[in-house]
Amino acid sequence: MLIDTHIHTKRCHHAEGDLEDYIIEAIKKGIKIIGFSEHAPLHFDLDKRLTQEESIKYLKDINRLKMKYKNKIKILAGFEIDYIEGYETQIKDFIDKTNADFYLGSIHFISLNEKIFTIWDYKEIQHNKILQHEYFRLMIKAIKTKLFNSISHPDLIFRAGFNEISFRKNFEQIFKELVKNNVCYEINCSGMFKTKYNPQTDTMDVGGFFNKKNLFKASKLDVQFTIGSDAHKIEDCGKGIKELTELVKLNKLKVVFFKNCKKQEIKI
Ligand SMILES: [Zn+2]
Ligand SMILES: [Zn+2]
What we know:
The chain is built from eight helices and 13 strands. By secondary structure, it is α/β, with parallel strands linked by helices. It has a single domain (about 1-265), classed as Metal-dependent hydrolases (TIM Barrel). Helix 5 (about 130-145) packs parallel to helix 6. The longest helix is centred in the N-terminal third of the chain and has 17 residues, at about 50-70. The mean pLDDT is about 95. The chain binds zinc ion (2 copies). One zinc ion binds near residues 6, 8, 152 and 230.
């Protein structure tokens, strides 16, 4: 069964297509469960996310579409929230107010010496051990808040050009915290297709940063997974999900989704 629970729309101002475009595309591709995970409001980076008002409208529109397509596809409403240390109360307030089906927690921003770095500063990340350490420290803190159902693309740091063994120890600790706090690891299919920083040539190379070994290790430690394409374009809805589904079946990974923040196990 195909499931995609990480989708963005034009509502975040850096993606294409609206809710219904993705629903129609998902049905066309045989996807049975689609989950929207629009970027939640934040006190900065305002031009790449929803406002508080837009978030309410977004939920209202998804609810209407849930009804309209109820015989064709299961639709879930979620948010991708940037975890920022010290803003836990604001995040909790947002969650209480929106009451969506699921919440993904992301580490996209790392604050250091009064400067905010992003995970897209690949060169900085590659060369700065403190930033690398902060990435994992923040992720552990995010997991321990128990505010999120799943951590989106925990392997995103590999996009900065590291090899698989560089962070084995850090990830083992992440896996343990995920299990302990009952939080999932999101398998983000965009990692199969996105470029990866090459520190030797200082270029972004094709080939992706998707980390299979991480999945097997996590699974052995009883980590559960959510799945998403991280589509920002209609045609990317479900991209990579079929290949991933094969991998999931072969390796018996436990895949779940969340409805009203309650975990539902599914047979893939
Ligand atoms: Zn985005
Ligand atoms: Zn995303």
